Every structure is written in C-alpha cells, then in structure tokens.
Amino acid sequence: MRSAGAVSTFGVYVHVPFCTVRCGYCDFNTYTVGFGEGAEPDTYAASIERELAQATASGLTRVADTVYLGGGTPSLLPADELERILDSVRRRVGVRAGAEVSMEANPDTVTPEAARRWARAGVTRVSMGMQSAVSHVLRTLERTHRPESIPAAVAAVREAGMDVSLDLIYGTPGESLADWEASLRAVIGLVPDHISAYGLVVEEGTKMGRLVRTGVLPAPDDDDEAMKYRLADGLLGEAGYRWYEISNWARPDEDEADLTDACDLRHVSRHNLAYWREGEWWGCGPGAHSFVGGRRWWNVKHPRAYAARLRAGESPRAGEETPDAEARRLEHLMLGIRLSSGLAWADAGASSGGDHLRDLVSAGYVSLRRGGVAVSMSEVCDDDRVVLTLKGRLLADEVTRRLAFG
C-alpha cells in the first residue's frame, strides 16, 4: 500500500553508464570504455529497446509523465542513438503530451548542433554538471571541462529551446568560501531555469576516498559545508530562485510570483519531484532501479552482463524486494520533509504523538504552515504542513530521525 501523500505520476529513467573519465569523487555506476555489442555508446540503444520490450511484455501499461536520461554522461551518446532510445520509449511505453524529458550533460560535450539534435529528439530540459566556476576546484574534482566553456554550453541549450539546469558541488577540498561565492555568482549570472547545489560526500571506494583516508586531501568539514549552504540559500534567494527541495532551487516565471509552494513552479525537476513524492518509475540500463506496484527491483550493474542478458532474451534484473509498511512510513517521512511542501501534520505528528514535533518546532528546526502562512501549535490541524526551516534543512537527517523514532 502506498503512503499518504504519494502521487500517481509515472516516470521512465534511462541510465547511460558511459563517461570519458571517471571523476575521483564519483561512486555512480559509470564506466570509461565500451564492453561490446549493446554495451557501448554507439550500440547502446539496442539494449534499452530490448529492456523496454520486456517491460511492455510483462504488462506495463503506464504512460510516462516524465523521462530522464541520467548517468554517466548521456550527452556522450551519438545523437542518433539518443533519438532511437527516446523513440523506443514513445513506442513501447508512451509519453504524455507536455511531458518533461530531461538529459544530463557534461558542458564540454554540448555544442549548438548537438543541442539542436537533442531538442528535435524530444528533450525539453538539459541538466549540466557545472560543479564549480573555479579552475582549481574543477581540477580537484577531476572534471574535464573549463569554467569558460559553461556560458557557451548554456547558450546552445537555451537557443535550441530547452530548459537549462546547472549543478554545483560545495565542500571540495581546497575550496574557500570566496571560491564558492564566485561559483554561485557565476551560475546566477547565467540565469538558468534551475540550480542544484550538493554538499560533497566522500565515498568509500572512490579515488578521492583513498586520498582523504591517506591524508593527501583533507576531509570535507561539516561546519564549512553548512556555511556554504547558508550562503547559497541567501544568494539564490536574493536572485529570485526558490528552494523546493533541500538541494534544489527553481526560477519562477513572471506569472508564478504568487505561488505559495515552490514545488508548483514550472521549472522544478518534475521527474525528481516524483521520486520525492513517492511516484512510480521504471528504470532501464545497468544498475537502474525501478519502483512499480509497491515492488522495487534493480538491474545487474555491469554493462557487459546487462547487454548479454538482454541479447539472450533474459531479464536484466539482479534482485527485488517489497518494502513493508514500516519501511514505507520511514521513506515517506524522509522524502516528504525534504520538500518545501513538507509533511502533513497528520503524518508527521502522528508518527511521534506530536510531542517530538513540538520539540522540533520549539528548537526552530521546523515551522507549521497553512497556505504558506505560519500557524502556531495551539491552532494546528491535520491538513497543516510541517516544513523545514533553514536551520532544519542543515540537519534534515536528524529531523527525520526524531520524527520517526522520537
């Protein structure tokens, strides 16, 4: 059974695992070389087509509200392969009129001709990994692009008629507060439709993880990252962007000035918002996860094994599970509290009898809202919303734990 507050949207996610280099901080399921038929950029569409054929043969009847090509670097795919993938999604699954179709791109792969081809294929939104506007920070992250390539990439996407989203990372070893401010001001100056800002997490098993463990690089500092998040929220807010998820801000259009909830803005990532609102999605590609009908499953991770199974007519699934009611409750709290729409009092308060929520309000971690207007504990009702404050956003995991367990 789905949680209260879950939405009925359906998305298709296509994982494209290819990169020119593997960045030292990255722990995503990515690979830098091809692995034979169906497992390299110029033959990859055939594997996705086979998986989508299995999906429809298994009884999938949902039509996609959103499509997202992530990775890896989807922009490394030849344009005809990308077109073939999106055509297959339309033929096998169906895509609603006005659907958001997003793809991720590295700035150094974006050209005017490529952007025009993506737009003709049906892409409506390009999310670029800018990460920083400071050269030494990009070098530490082992990014392949230069800061000066960003404006031309943004212009190419915009001129092709697609929305532009730019991703930033803060907390890189050696990044000063002035460096971070320079990146923020650079991204604001490009006036993208959407901005994401993520605190660097050093993962075990990555090159950066080894460098930090051996003392070659300093570990990210929690206080430094908190200061940088506050700076981001302040500067982005001054520039007119509104936060709708802890790490995401969208630019309102002129006719959206009076919208109470930033989740309703036109330029939010509708595909990602559906994840946070517990929608359903089918994930294609090596390592991709899916959630349909209360079940989760995930594919084998290696591109060669993924392609081989599909060529043999076998399922690429590596495992599956059905979350129980308690797991779904915890997920509902964890995801919902991240959003500017927050959680209904009936959900958040009921999980702790209200006492712990009162403590969170008193400590300034959450506020109670009704139609965007603050209300007090004495007048709260079940339909009112529990929303993270800026202080609470900095400690969202702790807030979630206290909501869930007291």
From TrEMBL:
| Main location class | cytoplasm
Q: In terms of domain of life, where is this protein from?
A: Bacteria
A GO BP term here is:
porphyrin-containing compound biosynthetic process
Query: Which PROSITE patterns does the record associate with it?
Result: RADICAL_SAM (PS51918)
Indicate the segments annotated as coiled coil, or none if absent: none
- What does the UniProt record say this protein does? Probably acts as a heme chaperone, transferring heme to an unknown acceptor. Binds one molecule of heme per monomer, possibly covalently. Binds 1 [4Fe-4S] cluster. The cluster is coordinated with 3 cysteines and an exchangeable S-adenosyl-L-methionine.
Q: Which family does it belong to?
A: Belongs to the anaerobic coproporphyrinogen-III oxidase family. HemW subfamily.
What's this protein's name? Answer: Heme chaperone HemW
